[in-house]
Amino acid sequence: MADKLDGSAIVANTIPSNRIQSSSITQTQLQPALYTTITQATHPKIRSLTYPGNDTAANNIGGQTVYLTGSGFYSNSSIYINGNSVPATSFISASNIGFTTPNLTNGIYPIYLVNYDGATAIKVPGIVISGEPSWNTAAGSLSSSQAVDGAWSYSLSANGDAPITYALAAGSSLPTGVSLNANGVISGTISSPPGVDTTYTFSVIASDAQNQDATRQFSVTATVGEGKLFANNVLLLHADGTNNGNNHSFLDSSNNNFTITRNGNATQGTFTPFSQTGWSAYFDGTGDYLTIASNTALTLGTSDFTIEFWWYPIQFSSDGELFGARNGSSLCFAMYTYGNNGSLAAYAGSGGASWDIVSNLNMGTAIRHTWNHIAFTHSLTLSHSLTLTHSVTHSHSLTHTLTHSLTHSLTRSLTRSLTLTHSHSLSLTHSHSVTQSHSLTHTHTRTCTHKETIVTGKKIGRAHV
Asked: Is residue 234 situated within a structural domain?
C-alpha cells in the first residue's frame, strides 16, 4: 500500500468503517486539501448586536437597521426573529452583518443566523423591542401672548418607559434667561427682552429608559404690546366685552382673568376718551356696580402700586364711591367724591383696621361732561419730601397738576412713572377701561377675604379704567 491515502482513489462504501483503525490515518497521510475540508468546517458565532445611535432597544414599528458582530457570516446568511425571516439583510464582512427589524410587540426575542450549509448561531437573550416615547403635548404654539418681560412656565409631557427626560435638539435654542429642565419644564425670564413681538421656535427630544427618542417642535411668541406694558397688572378692564356691541360681558384682560360680576344695569358701549374703536363702561347711578371675588393677587400691602382710570361724570353726588375694596374692618382701598362739585378723596390701607397708607387724600376736582384721567400711585422710592411718599396725579384731557405742591419737573416725572411703570403691584387698565359715574368695583385685599363691591353714585357717569 502506498504511504498516502489518495482520497480520489477511494470509491464510496468500499472501505467499511470497522476496517479503519482509530487514529491510524494521520494528517501527513491525507492530502492537504482534503484535511482542510474535513477539519475546518465554518460554525458562525454572534458575539453582540448594535442598535441605532445610543439606543439599547429597537422600536416596535420596525424598519430600523441593527448590526450583528461575530464570525462565520456569509453574504447569503439568513437571519430569523420570532420564527420569521427579517425583511432584509446587508452583508458587510464575515464578522459584521446588518438586518432590517420587523414589526414586533414589545419584548425580547432570540436571534438565529443560519448559513447556507445549515450551520446556525443563536443570540440569547436576543433583541430588545420597545416602543419609542409618544408625545402628550401637542406640537406647535405653546403660547401666542407670552409677555416679553414675563416669566415663562410651560410643562412638556411624553409617555414611554420611565424615566422620560427632555432636552433641546441639536441646533435648537431658547432665549437667554430661559431654560428647559430635564423634567420637561420650561422656565425663566428673557434676559434682554426684544422690542418687537418675537416668535421662538425650538425642537425638544423626549428620551426613554432605552435612550429611544421622539422629537417635537414647539414655539412661543413673546409679545410687546399689552403683554409687556401690562405684564404686572393684576386687573385690567377694557370694557370691550365680546360681541362688539352694547353688551354685559365684562372681562378682565390681565393674566389673572378674574371673573367680573355685573350688578344692576351696568353695561358697555363705544363712548370713549380714545378713538372710535375704544370702549367704556356705563353706570346709571342707581344700583349699578361690578364685583370681583377675593384673591390674594389683589392685595395692595405696602408695596408700589397704581390705580388708574378715565372718568366721564354727568352729575356729582356727595360721598359717591368710585372704587372700594374692604371686608368689615379690613381696609384696602376706596375713592370717593365728596360735596357736589366733583372733589375727590382717596383712602388706602394695608389690610388692617385703619387707612394706614393714606387717608382722605385730596385728589383735586373732576369736571362734568369731560373725560377726567385719574391715577393714584403709591411708591416707596419717592423722597420723603413728598407727603407720606404718596403721589397723586389727576388730569383733564391727560394733563393736570399734582394735588401736592410739587415742582413742575417732578410732576412730569411722576406722571410718566404712573403710566409706564411695570413694577406696580396693582393697576387698572392702561388705556381701556372706565368707571362710569360713581361705581366700578375693584377687589384687592391683604386680609380682605370676601368680594368687595362699589356702590355707584346718585347719578350716571362713564368710566374707562
From this structure: no
